[in-house]
Specification:
The protein is α/β, with parallel strands linked by helices. It is built from 17 helices and 24 strands.
């Protein structure tokens, strides 16, 4: 029997994959990179062959084993390119993640959704590897996309394809629509917003096209096995959406760089404001300038900073959600038929609740994170945004027993209610993860707002992804609450937020704050963005923060005392 058997080493794929390849037997030799179907713990899964030997070479080992090898269920008639396998190995080494987990991230949307014949094709024949080149592009959206069009035309003239990587499905749709004009037949859009059937159709067409193509997709499609892709553009490279929130915990931007180093070609890191990590590498000469970096703030709207401390005395709570200027702007929006966006950092009625007597914060009983006050049909609730635990808000302080629990801060739900109470005739829309559970619901709310004369939209970061056009005015309900984000990158994020919001406003841009002399507000609006970034870089260097150090998180879990060991 062993004379007809081969033992294959297989990397099994999955979110939680084994660290080492598993052994299976096969009745035929399986070359490296063969995609096979195997069974792990009774469940069918995809595996990648890393090598095979004749069973007689492991005859004694197989007889002494306490278990019998399982058979390879079947193989797809396609073999992963060598560069793809090398890329996955490099990503695995960098992030200390199992190769099977990385295959699970990048392989399913590339091959398993396709007919076997397409999987076997893999695009054009491989050419000589080009050296890896890395560029930066920092400019406002319109000029940046114009430069991308030039890159696409130049690539097509060289008979090369271009891959544009976007952080979200919404940005994929928006950027694809902008860049595909005139070349629609050669453009393909790929994201989780499409159905499995649509993804399979687009991938099949993209791999079969003899003409150079433009692919606009999210990061999980980076490994599309089309050999003529020589240029990758990472759009909005400063977005936090490039960090995976589930296993394997990776940064897709790093994966893109490793792909270019492995396969060869050009990588462009593009955004309105590049990350400090990227700018530091540029200053060190490790990245090249595709075009002069744009540091200017060119707001079309008139900018005004509102000192909210002036409204403390007249408010029974000691603070006010809406300034007189914002209320006046709301009325002006109604009268003129324009549109107003009110940005909120957090959802809910109030992002912070504390005891008015002892000052104790109301926390989650499960994970001890501060809870957020929400309203529901059954009354007000305390909801933890970290673990999702919810409970009734009808309670006393758990520290001192006081009934004087006070809700503080400007949540999207609270701001919406405040506007409606002050201006009952206002047409107010709310767009956050509470009001829009799906992408279609979010698109519907954004579309209704843009089609409503005198409409007012109260929204969080989610709303910014769905606004496809500028509005008359934009206001920030509480700039100070943004500093509560426990992230060393918060200053960089706030600079990018001001740039984004100011670019959306055509007439007026209001910022409500209790600290109008804040350095970030003052320097960004004063056109000193470059100096602000330089100061932030120096601070990170003095504290040993990235890019000067690398944070590594090691977690030990299990039944005690295993974590201690």
């Amino acid at each position: 029997m062993t004379s007809l058997m081969f033992v294959a080493s297989v990397i099994t794929t999955g979110k939680v994959a084994p660290a080492q390849p598993l052994s299976y037997f096969s009745l035929k030799p399986l070359p490296k990179g063969t995609i096979v179907r195997v069974v792990v713990k009774g469940k069918p899964t995809i595996g990648i062959v890393t090598g095979f030997v004749h069973a007689r070479e492991r005859k004694l080992e197989l007889r002494a084993a306490a278990f019998s090898l399982k058979k390879v269920s079947g193989d797809l008639p396609g073999i992963l390119p060598e560069w793809f396998r090398s890329w996955i190995t490099e990503c695995s080494l960098f992030f200390a993640a199992p190769e099977g987990a990385l295959y699970h991230t990048f392989l399913p949307p590339v091959l398993s959704a396709l007919p076997p014949s397409v999987a076997a094709d893999g695009g054009r024949a491989s050419e000589k590897k080009r050296p890896a080149e890395f560029f930066v592009l920092q400019n406002e959206d319109r000029n940046r996309l114009s430069r991308c069009k030039t890159i696409i035309r130049e690539a097509f003239a060289k008979k090369e394809s271009v891959f544009i990587c976007c952080p979200t499905t919404e940005s994929v749709s928006r950027i694809a629509q902008e860049l595909s004009r005139g070349i629609e037949r050669h453009c393909f859009e790929l994201s989780s917003a499409l159905t499995r059937k649509e993804i399979s159709k687009n991938l099949k067409s993209a791999l079969a096209s003899p003409h150079p193509i433009l692919i606009t997709a999210t990061a999980s499609f980076l490994g599309i096995p089309r050999e003529d892709i020589k240029t990758w553009i990472i759009e909005e490279e400063g977005s936090n959406a490039y960090f995976s929130i589930a296993r394997p915990f990776i940064d897709f931007r790093v994966c893109a760089e490793l792909l270019v180093k492995t396969k060869g070609g050009s990588l462009v890191l593009a955004d309105r404001l590049l990350r400090i990590e990227t700018l530091t590498r540029f200053n060190e000469g490790k990245l090249m300038e595709l075009a002069p970096l744009d540091w200017r703030l060119k707001p079309e709207a008139a900018v005004k900073v509102i000192d909210m401390r002036e409204y403390r005395k007249n408010s029974p709570k000691g603070f006010s959600l809406l300034s007189g200027e914002l209320l006046e702007l709301t009325r002006e929006t109604l009268d003129s038929g324009g549109r107003l966006l009110v940005y909120c950092a957090r959802r809910g009625l109030a992002p912070l609740c504390l005891c008015g007597d002892c000052g104790e914060t109301v926390n989650c009983q499960n994970c001890v994170a501060p809870v957020v006050l929400h309203s529901s049909k059954d009354g007000q609730l305390f909801i933890c945004h970290r673990c999702g635990t919810r409970r009734s808000a009808a309670e006393n302080c758990r520290h001192c027993g006081s009934w004087k629990l006070t809700a503080l801060g400007a949540g999207a739900e609270g701001v919406t209610g405040e506007i409606k109470s002050k201006i009952p005739t206002a047409e107010v829309f709310r767009l956050d993860s509470d009001s829009a559970k799906t992408s279609k619901q979010a698109e519907k709310i954004a579309r209704e707002f843009l089609n409503t004369t005198g409409g007012i939209l109260v929204g969080t970061d989610l709303a910014l992804n769905y606004l496809s056009e500028k509005v008359a005015s934009v206001a920030v309900s509480s700039f100070d609450s943004l500093f509560a984000i426990p992230d060393y990158r918060v200053s960089e994020r706030l600079i990018r937020l001001i740039l984004k919001l100011s670019s959306l406003a055509k007439k007026k841009f209001l910022i409500q704050t209790r600290n109008p002399k804040n350095e970030i507000i003052k320097d960004v609006l004063g056109g000193k963005i470059k100096e602000l970034i330089q100061n932030e870089t120096k601070m990170r260097e003095s504290l040993g923060y990235p890019p000067f150090k690398t944070f590594v998180k090691i977690t030990a879990s299990g039944r005690w005392p295993a974590p201690e060991r």
